Amino acid sequence: MRTTRRSATRTAAVVGAVAGALLLAGCTSPLPAPDPDPTPSEAVPALTTDQMAEVRTAVGTALEQAGATNDASQLSSRLAGPALSLRTSQLAVAAARGDGSLITQLPTDVQQDIITTTDTWPRQAYAVTVQPEDLQSPRLLAYEQGTARDPYKLWAWVRLFPSATLPTFAGAAVGSEAVPMDDSSLLVTPADAVAQYADVLTLGTGSAFAASFAEDPLRAWVASNATLQMTELAKAEGTMTMTFTPMPDQARAVRTADGGAMVVAGLSALETRTVEAGGTIAPGSETEKAIFGSTPATNVLNVGYTTMVAMYIPPAGATTGIQVLGMENVATSVATA
Question: Which of 14, 151, 241, 247 has its CA 20 to 30 A from that of 84?
């Protein structure tokens, strides 16, 4: 059985820790990662590095084949969760607009693998990619195996913020503990951190948790989008609201070398634009138009988003707060109701 006390896992994490935190601004060089053999008393990683490479290749092949044909039906064999929803929408929009650049690049070459030591299912593994060819920031990829008979699938990904610094993790040969959503050894539990961030995205500075999170590109986009939409809606006595909600059972966490945790979570967002009765409101962006299609417009437009976020939660007693590391936020539905 692959079980061990958290103290043993933390010791292993310190021994096998990747030297230094990963500063993502302009990083393209490989990360040093000690690769000691685990002792019998230590939990064993769920995957070897060779197996992890095979997972990345299989997922990359599925993404490439689906992208080449704009056929989302090829995704389900190797994608799941928020990643499947988001990629399905990206393929549909890219086909409708005739623009393949709208599909997020997800490199299969990586700087670092983060493999969990859990002996139960579902199991997770993570990877930090090299910088994509379009010179955007590296991606954090999250993979999951639902049962012992299932293949590992890409469950989520985020674009890491250029200024973000990833926490340090144990080397892939040592492995990192999977963290439950109610873990109380952290500054806040992973479940609470995700819920609090969703509240901040919804209420902005009016959230009771606003001071717990620094400003970040996703918060900035939410604010600028609200300003943009209201500039036009105000001309028709319109209103606009946007609400972020944690997706049920769509958050995963892994232990960092300092006893904290990195959390990857899916959020759903609903943006509702309304104008006075008798008026009509049409989709704004080209992406919204592609999703909306030929549906007759009414005085209400609902734009749904699939949002994926990653954050670092320090251990309990830390003087630093939660750090949001990256996100992906894409419109996946546009409707009148």
Answer: 241
